[in-house]
Design a protein that fits this description.
The protein contains two helices and no strands. The protein is mainly alpha-helical and about 70 residues long. The chain has one domain.
């Protein structure tokens, strides 16, 4: 089954929205890294690392979607 054709203007709009979301995720990643570096308790450091890994996965997922679905 073929996918419906999406107009270029709609693709551009979606890409712009996703780029804003990506910027937020990147800023969160930087903030998490700062907090991780300030943290001394091993259990908490591990938690920061897990959060950062999930954040990286989200960034990768959004980036792939942009490339595949927004055609740029």
């Amino acid at each position: 089954m073929a996918e419906a054709r999406i107009e270029r203007a709609k693709k551009n709009q979606m890409r712009a929205q996703l780029e804003k979301i990506l910027e937020s995720y990147r800023q969160l990643g930087e903030q998490m890294s700062l907090y991780e570096n300030e943290t001394e308790v091993g259990e908490y450091v591990k938690f920061w690392q897990e959060l950062k890994a999930g954040n990286r996965q989200s960034i990768e997922r959004i980036s792939r979607y942009m490339v595949m679905k927004c055609n740029r």
